[in-house]
From TrEMBL:
Keyword vocabulary terms for this entry: Repeat, WD repeat
SMART domains (alphabetical): WD40
Chain ranges of the Gem-associated protein 5 TPR domain: 292-464
Source species: Crenichthys baileyi
A Pfam family recorded for this sequence: TPR_GEMI5
Protein name: WD repeat-containing protein 17
Alphabetized InterPro entries for the sequence: TPR_GEMI5 (IPR056421), WD40/YVTN_repeat-like_dom_sf (IPR015943), WD40_PAC1 (IPR020472), WD40_repeat_CS (IPR019775), WD40_repeat_dom_sf (IPR036322), WD40_rpt (IPR001680)
Length: 759
């Protein structure tokens, strides 16, 4: 017997060396199985009952297959083939009934849709046999795997069911979020939640009155997110929104706290430790001593910037040197007073060590009194009294806290923890940088939820996040979801126009989407485009031509405008990028027409060049050379007429490299002049655009990979972290590079004219 799993209905399933799966009924004294399932060609190592579908179980075998069995039908209902070695790990998802995960000796993990046997994803990161698979009890889309490569890895299944969170975000009816297993198992139907975690959330929401949207977004986003700081993030959001402190969970004080609570919570902790000064007895065997607790309290006060309290505790412990060494951080008056107290103590002990303390503070009268009391001088009276005043260091403390949080956020971000980076920014009320961290980490759904709950303070970043999410779901089954997302953005007319322009449906379907988005019909768009041309309104002309039945006219007008701009000397990125971005939404079936070859090539070249400049603006350093090389190769291979030369691109790229100090060679004077010209062109008209500058870095980017399967077509080096495959299913780049590329140039690096969608 190799594997077993006990069901809730007093049945047990076993997998055996004889290649069979047996089901036994435990409530009987018989040793004979109720069912024997045959079909595997080698020993069965693992079996699992489905937690959501009664009578359904799976088995993994050394023949490399996973079989799905229906106990009620006494039959194998599906065979999942794809592994090339024995299957050793199996796990059903506890919320989506058709999701099954398997691990194998071929070093891979596969995620299956058991409705039709489709392999939804294959993970190659382990470097040896995969054995154990499990999922988080309260976060059912976070799973863990263990392998003989001596690693345990955490994975998120959320990307495979991401429309669910968008249904919650766009406030779709419950029927599109939670359902029964029969509905969820219909082939091709969208995913539905059917497990205990989701139903518990709904029950708790049903108990609440008033506006429950914030709670709904929080609880479901935590359900979908890995346990990497999302609860901490939501605690901070609710603090910023004014939630009563008494409602904060106990775990809040153990994470990243809001600055208004930092002193409160840590001071309370320090005071608890300080209470031992008044206790007569210790805490028993093994408990920290009084001195240890006082030292711990003192360290907390010091980290909080409460230097005077630290000094007093050090004095209590008799560590005068430590107290005196930091006392000037309170004030010189306080330091002087502490020196005088030390001198008084030493004088009371008749210790000559008091002399240098009196001299250091300039208290000659006290020194004279000391000598007089010892009969070494005549009497002397001190008429002065000394008072001390605490200096308010709050402003300096908060400035320091902002700087520390910013540095800590960057450290977390570079460690692949964008959620914790966002927590650090929220701790000091920097909502824009918090959302920027989530967006740069591609935590788009979480960022959108956070932005909607925070409200007005996050409007600009929330709109950008919703726009990226809409781009993510511009695919056949989820166009309406994209429209719902864009309709949540104020002033969304142009965004909805882009969506409808790119929609690849039939004329009737396009007309229906136009109506849904409040846009004119195809014929009306053609008329409006002609009117805009006559009025000299170029942007409107391009927009309405794209929305008409003849979108190719938009290319002719728009490309000529951009070429004319680039022929001059005073153009900027912001003067041409909006038109290029709009044209990039032309329907793919039109763009790839043979008669548009020249226009298509020119559009790709212009988008590549402007994308390179945008990448410099946003500090996307890893893809700048690739964008310039992409543009140069298109110029070399395509017959086009654009005001760009390969030699000029080389000069610009070399100037950028030298002035950005990427090659450790000081720039020449001509390179400095060239770079100044570049900077003038890329300077944003809106300073807010700089908030999102900095390379994207998704979770897992810093983790080692044992896979040599994917080399970057940008660099030729092995890709570390998540991989993004291009449309030929061979060429690969890192997901980070793909995200940055798509944000500055929507077209594929392969030059095919297809848009990429790595979001």
């Amino acid at each position: 017997m190799w594997g077993l799993w006990v069901s809730l209905r007093d049945m047990i399933a076993t997998g055996c060396e004889d290649k069979n799966v047996r089901v036994y009924y435990l409530a009987t004294s018989s040793d004979q199985p109720l069912k024997v399932f045959t079909g595997h060609l080698a020993k069965v190592f693992h079996v699992r009952w489905s937690p959501l579908r009664e009578g359904i179980l799976c088995s993994g075998s050394d023949d490399g297959t996973v079989r799905i069995w229906d106990y009620t039908q006494d039959a194998c209902i599906n065979v999942l083939s794809g592994h090339t070695a024995p299957v050793r790990g199996l796990m059903w998802n506890t919320e989506v009934p058709y999701l099954l995960i398997s691990g194998s000796w071929d070093y891979t993990i596969r995620v299956w849709d058991t409705r039709d046997g489709t392999c939804l994803d294959t993970v190659y990161d382990h470097g040896a046999d995969v054995y154990g698979l499990t999922c988080h009890q309260n976060r059912p889309f976070t799973m863990a795997s263990c392998s003989r490569d001596s690693t345990v890895r955490l994975w998120s299944l959320t990307p495979l069911i991401s429309p669910l969170l968008l249904n919650i975000l766009t406030e779709q009816p419950w029927e599109k979020i939670i359902g029964n297993t029969d509905t969820a198992m219909v082939p091709g139907s969208p995913p539905l939640l059917c497990g205990k975690v989701s139903r518990d959330i709904k029950q708790e929401l049903d108990k609440l009155s008033g506006d429950v949207r914030a709670k709904k977004l929080r609880w479901f986003s935590e359900c979908f997110s890995p346990p990497g700081g999302s609860s901490n993030l939501w605690d901070l959001v609710f603090v910023i929104n004014g939630q009563d402190d008494s409602l904060l969970p106990a775990s809040y004080s153990k994470g990243v706290m809001h600055m208004k609570h930092l002193v409160k919570f840590k001071t309370s902790e320090a005071q608890e430790l300080t209470i031992v000064k008044m206790s007569k007895f210790g805490g028993g065997i093994g408990a920290p001593s009084k001195e240890e607790r006082l030292k711990e309290a003192a360290e907390i006060h010091l980290r909080l910037g409460q230097i005077q309290r630290y000094c007093e505790l050090m004095v209590e412990l008799g560590q005068w040197e430590k107290a005196l060494s930091v006392a000037p951080g309170v004030s010189m008056k306080y330091w002087k007073k502490l020196m005088q107290r030390r001198a008084d103590q030493l004088m009371a002990e008749d210790n000559d060590d008091a002399i240098p303390y009196c001299i250091a503070t300039g208290d000659i009268k006290k020194l004279v009194a000391f000598f007089t009391s010892r009969g070494q001088l005549g009497p002397f009276t001190d008429r002065n009294s000394h008072t001390t005043n605490d200096v308010d260091n709050r402003q300096q403390y908060q400035s320091l806290l902002h700087n520390v949080c910013k540095e800590l956020a960057e450290w977390y971000f570079q460690d692949g923890c964008s959620v914790l980076a966002a927590c650090c920014h929220l701790a000091v009320d920097n909502i824009q940088l918090a959302l920027a961290s989530l967006i740069r980490g591609n935590e788009l759904e979480l960022a959108a939820c956070l932005g909607l709950v925070v409200g007005e303070a996050a409007n600009q970043s929330t709109a950008y996040c919703l726009e990226l999410l809409a781009r993510k779901y511009m695919t056949t089954p989820t166009w309406e979801l994209s429209a719902d997302l864009l309709q949540m953005i104020p002033d969304n007319h142009v965004l909805l126009a882009k969506l409808c322009a790119f929609y690849p449906g039939s004329v009737a379907e396009i007309s229906q989407l136009h109506e849904r988005c409040g846009l004119p019909s195809l014929d009306e768009c053609k008329t409006l485009a002609e009117e805009a041309v006559r009025d000299g309104d170029l942007f409107s002309a391009v927009k309405f031509h794209l929305l008409s039945s003849e979108p190719e006219h938009a290319l002719q007008i728009g490309v000529e405008f951009v070429k004319e701009q680039l022929s001059g000397s005073d153009w900027t990125v912001d003067s041409v990028q909006p038109i290029l971005d709009l044209m990039s939404y032309i329907r793919t079936d039109h763009l790839i027409l043979a008669r548009l070859t020249k226009a298509r090539s020119e559009l790709l070249i212009l988008c590549g060049y402007i994308g390179g400049l945008l990448a410099i603006r946003r500090s996307y350093y890893s893809i700048v050379p690739a964008l310039y090389e992409y543009t140069s190769q298109l110029l070399k291979r395509r017959e086009v007429c654009v005001p760009l030369k390969i030699e000029q691109l080389t000069v610009e790229l070399d100037a950028w490299r030298a002035c950005a100090q990427l090659n450790n060679i000081p720039p020449s004077e001509s390179q400095r002049e060239e770079f100044i010209c570049l900077e003038r062109r890329i300077l944003p008209t809106e300073p807010a655009a700089l908030v999102l500058s900095g390379a994207d870095y998704v979770t897992g980017s810093n983790l080692p990979s044992h896979s040599d399967l994917h080399l970057s077509c940008f660099t030729g080096h092995r890709i570390q972290g998540p991989v993004f495959l291009l449309e030929d299913n061979k060429s690969a780049i890192s997901l980070n590079d793909a995200l940055m590329w798509a944000k500055v140039n929507p077209f594929s690096p392969l030059g095919t004219g297809l848009r990429i969608n790595p979001f």
